[in-house]
């Protein structure tokens, strides 16, 4: 290992770190350890890409929420190549534009959902209030029947005097939407007469179904029984954009005598989370309001559909480049985090960096520095010099796709110091062999070897397995599994064992007597003049003193 020092011109610094990062041959030292992270030279650049990454996370969250498939496409030329400042500015501008459009569409969709919720609840209230008026109107001939009009609600029998007086003062029926459509407005006249005589008014709205019992008790106690509550459960759940799951609600109507009681009832219902809607006492007006509400709901459905299509198309275009943008942004953040480890020399207008590298890799590093200077279009090259030092170098163990898995096993127990023998080389043999001592079976070992061999032969086609959390371990350890299977076949042959059954390829060195006696009789085998050629004699599988 060698300690090197680099003098990097400021206009070449980002390209230099990018090239060295792609090679992964240098471990840089922090020359600004006494400086806080917020006072370093490139902190603004780090914040810039932090903000871009935040926008990408938001876009990714919206893509998942709307069920858009994320493309696995990765622009290798843009991600692995040399990216200039203009390329990054264009990428940032496009991300900002995409995020701005998605934000506007999402905000508009939420507002439309709130409006849709309001119209939908208003529709249910109008329908249920008209239905209630029709029910009461049909029972006006018998006061006792009115007492039962509040189905399961509002202490209907105690509220009977309130409605009974209204029925006595005017025998007109309360108007309904159906009556208005038929041209019968006598109910409207009756409601007006009742309002003039005893000043009975009502409030209507919707409330969560699990709070309707609480609303009933609180209203009854607060208004001292001078009220009549009727409610109907809405069968379909209502989607509230402010809540994650649909909510079951109930439409209710509260009759009260006098403005003060109605005002008190209004405050109570709103405190329990109810949403109140204005419902006209005129049947004709209710009919017009219902028709208008349904028409606006239909129009709003088309607008919501168009908004969904526009958002889906926008997020689909984002998903095509999302993986590429994520990779570039994370690389740029890593570049500027590395640049913050360097010292800035204002007099020379350059950055001074120190790092460890393998001595054999110095020519490759010099080639990368030359390539970075060409990419930046600069005439001032980066200067590299090797320093003499007594500091202990870090551990560097060069691995490949075969030894990487075994080295990870060793590193899980401890990393050897520089100059010490690396146990990873011996682990390539000892680990699978010790496994095979426990798993010695020719048949099971063959199946394991076959599966691992397929992973090794088709590793490029099956590279997607490394992205799956549950399958990543099998793919990255394919060479470990391959050796474990081969050694298991070897020990299984020595154990003379295939799928937990003995193999009789050759003649046994022991002979069992023809007359083995009855049950419970000990029989001894006779030793022959030859031995079993390979492994354990299969006769031992039937012996009572067998160690297998």
Salient structural properties:
52% helix; four-stranded antiparallel β-sheet; five-stranded antiparallel β-sheet; 548 residues; alpha+beta
List the helices and strands and how they pair.
Layout: E1 2-9, H1 13-23, E2 26-28, H2 43-65, H3 76-80, H4 85-138, H5 143-147, H6 160-169, H7 177-181, H8 186-198, E3 200-208, H9 212-222, E4 227-233, E5 249-257, H10 259-271, E6 275-277, H11 283-319, H12 322-339, E7 343-345, E8 350-357, H13 362-376, E9 383-387, H14 404-413, H15 424-438, H16 442-457, H17 472-476, H18 478-495, E10 497-498, E11 501-502, E12 510-511, E13 526-527
Antiparallel strand pairs: 1-8, 1-9, 2-8, 3-5, 3-6, 4-5, 7-8, 10-11, 12-13
